[in-house]
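DM from R.C. (forwarded with permission)

"hey, sorry to bug you on a friday — could you get me a structure for this? deadline for the figure draft is monday and I only need the backbone to look sensible"
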Amino acid sequence: MIFNSIAFAVFLPVVFLLYWFAVNKNLKLQNVFLLLASYFFYGWWDWRFLFLLISVAIFNYIIGIRIDKDKTGKTRGIWLVLGLLVNLGVLCVFKYYNFFIDSFIDLLSLFGYDLPRSTTRIILPLGISFYTFLSLSYILDIYKRNLKAHRNIIEVLLTLGFFPIILAGPIQRPITLLPQITKKREFDYHKATDGLKQILWGLFVKVVIADNLAPSVDTIFNNYTGYSGSTLLVGAVLYAVQIYADFSGYSHMAIGTGRLFGFNLMQNFAYPYFGRDISEFWKRWHISLTTWFRDYLFLPLSVTVSRGIKKEKVFFIKADLFIYITASIVTWFLTGLWHGANYTFIVWGMIHGFFLILFQWQKQPRKILFKRIGIKNSNLVIVFLDTMVTLFIVLLAWIFFRSESIAHSYAFLDQMFSPSLFELPSGMFKTGLIWSVLFLIAEWIQRNKQHALQFDKLPVYIRWFAYYAVLFLIFNKGGQQETFIYFQF
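My reply, with the result:
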């Protein structure tokens, strides 16, 4: 079931009313009801994969208890390794089996061995990357003694399968979600109404912005040889807005839905295209994934690498920078691979990793230079230039992310940076640009809020005019229904 569907428009109010008016007196009953609703929500897509979701959750429930029971530490590591192997094994089989087999065949072909390609293709279960990371968070936090293993299986299963976040996040870690599940929840009118506003805004940016941009983006990327470089640049800009509207729209709807049921889910986007540098961009984009990789991979890897360094420099590089480079390369390689079984995603991740390393390297020299020439880092011109450079890097990386292959990416870039880059772009994509600009203006105005419909200080009649205007646009200006982009990850 997807948020922008008729099925969900029926499902949500029914579940909401039963939750608050039929089972609201009993916390255990509320949790059982939410779990059944979550499984119905997930099973609506394909009931067969519901059994995979349940099996993974039960396995991690058991592993968590086994890790927690060992107070001496003799078998904790063994149980953790088993948990990691099974979780990552399931993810690799379903998400990367086809990719690994095809890559192996391509490698052998370089040495003259031509193997037949298998016609068997494994279907990618929706949300598997997200609920696998939820599961890994659960057992890793228990292992690190940041979280106690819960014996109540309903609470754990609900934590690892809560329907607002199960398909595309946010990756709400069990350490913050479990306490909310175990605590009695009272209906909060203000929280619920704000949740409805956030759902409305998320639906707007998905249906009106992202879905209207999708045909133009598809046309440009699928027929790039027939367009000027300037039009391809427009296509890259439109895709940057499309994927942001598409994914942030889902996150808004997920967070808003959580609020309807009394849960506070983490903010997943904080207006990333307004970040002035690549580091700030990643503090604002897909925050739940960025912080997950930071806490469970980057920081532990940095500590591990630092223990093996005894000198101030390694290969003529300062030790702290060398540690950062090593941890960043591994982290961003895996971040790219997490997004999909294609070399384009790996290149996309490595581009961001490279510029983050470059940003880290130049911070101190830049500070010294600015001090010598008397320029403040907060200078508006400097901030504007930094933001434009960051956006350009992000746009270039999105081209790899959107392309079907590395060859496609290079051909697109080659055409984009041709002399035709200085021609006027095709006028047929003007409407998409207008929608993009209006959307970003609304985001800029509300950049200090969690979503663009938070304006309670305005007069009532202005607020309700805005709500009805957004509803009107959803029903009258929405594009053809498109699947959420991140469902493929």
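R.C.: lifesaver. The longest helix spans residues 76-109.
me: no worries. DSSP finds 17 helices and two strands in the chain.
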